[in-house]
Amino acid sequence: MIERKSHLDARAIALLLFCCSFWGLQQILIKTTVTEVPPLWQASIRMSGAVLLLWLWCRWRGVPLFERDGTLPGGLLAGLLFTAEFIGIYIGLQHTSASRLTVFLYTAPFVVALLLPRFAPSERLRGVQWLGLAIAFAGVVVAFSESFGHSGSRQLLGDALALMGGIAWGLTTLTIRATRLATASAEKTLFYQIAVTAAVSPMLSILLGERWGVSYSGYAWFSIALQTVIGAFASYLAWMWMLRHYPATRISSFTFLTPLFALVFGVLLLSEPLTLQLVLALAGVALGIVLVNRKSAPPVAQAGATGRAN
């Protein structure tokens, strides 16, 4: 029986901050590596390497990956949705600006908050928590608003692909919580997703005419190694573990930090300017996350009730 907590504790918050900060750094890594390694070929290498690392991890830990436990339908669906998210991101970036794509992509927590309570009533958000979600999203919009106009003529297609990616991300979380995957190990849940993506990404890369190669700079391989070992393996495995033990609606709110961490790393590593918009956005996202994760007040027994809280 899985012990599911009703709120985020210090360990969950620390893991979430680690994951979101690295995912923000990962956006910088992808951005600075894509000049050498095409995006979907980059994703193919990452996911294939992560599949190998996860298989070795499971062999070492004795975690079964191929036993029949009824998770195959949900696992394949999660894998296809996970792949659709990456398609939306990587192909969408070819048609719209990164700023617009980021805003559409981070509609994912709203998808989780709207749909998951139908399957898990304990995940329902109260009014103040919805307000927090809206404030956090507004923070992301503020952070990227000044560059909204710098898009090409095929912007609408890119925006639609970004929105598809955000919806797919939210539906992946829903699938993990609402199917037999909810009882599967974090390793097996992740295996479905990265294995399907590792199988599909190379085919998409070929269809898009990307040039494959291995003669890349030391920096490019270092970047891909970090994206593989920490990004696609360690951080995603931590995320799957958290989805098994903590409220998905609350941990999803932390993902609004990821694009802001990317901007912060841009300031620190790429000498990009620190703007007032970024400071305000960080404050807004932090406030929103605090509101979403406020503990519920204990219910008060009413007169004529049974004498205890329901």
UniProtKB/TrEMBL annotation:
Keywords: Membrane, Transmembrane, Transmembrane helix. Residues 12-143, 157-293 form the EamA domain. It comes from the Bacteria. InterPro entries: AA-Vitamin_Transporters, EamA_dom, EmrE-like. The chain crosses the membrane at residues 12-29, 41-58, 70-91, 97-116, 128-148, 160-178, 190-208, 220-239, 251-270, 276-292. It is a multi-pass membrane protein. Pfam families: EamA. PANTHER family: EAMA DOMAIN-CONTAINING PROTEIN, INNER MEMBRANE TRANSPORTER. This is DMT family transporter. It comes from Variovorax defluvii.
